[in-house]
Specification:
The protein is α/β, with parallel strands linked by helices and 109 residues long. 37% of the residues lie in helices and 18% in strands. It is globular and about 30 Å long.
Length: 109
């Protein structure tokens, strides 16, 4: 199972949700997305706006791969549980965040 965490900040991150929905739909992979404030609603992925922290931790435990925005909390949770991680930084220029997340993602890399 692939788990995607788009964060809980007030910005939309449809860019990642759309790409993931297309790829996992074409490959028929079970994928769960916590959308946060993202407006796009996936067709091929199971999705939730917000999940309780305990549920997110349980999903991380049972995932084979975590794909996340470049937020400190999501990346740290996956790394501490030794899960393969793909982090996609949000872009200030694309109005996905207040600040670019590239520096933090590069640091974790």
């Amino acid at each position: 199972m692939i788990l995607c965490l788009l964060g809980t900040n007030p910005y939309d991150f449809s860019r990642l949700a759309v790409a993931l929905d297309i790829v996992t739909g074409n490959l028929n992979l079970k994928t769960i997305i916590q959308l946060g404030n993202t407006q796009f609603k996936p067709i091929h992925c199971e999705s939730y706006d917000f999940l309780p922290a305990e549920k997110v931790q349980m999903l991380i435990d049972s995932s084979e791969l975590v794909i996340t925005q470049g937020g400190f909390g999501s990346m740290t949770d996956a790394i501490l549980k030794d899960k393969p991680l793909i982090a996609v930084p949000r872009s200030k220029e694309l109005m996905e965040a207040q600040d670019n997340q590239e520096e933090l993602v590069e640091y974790f890399e």
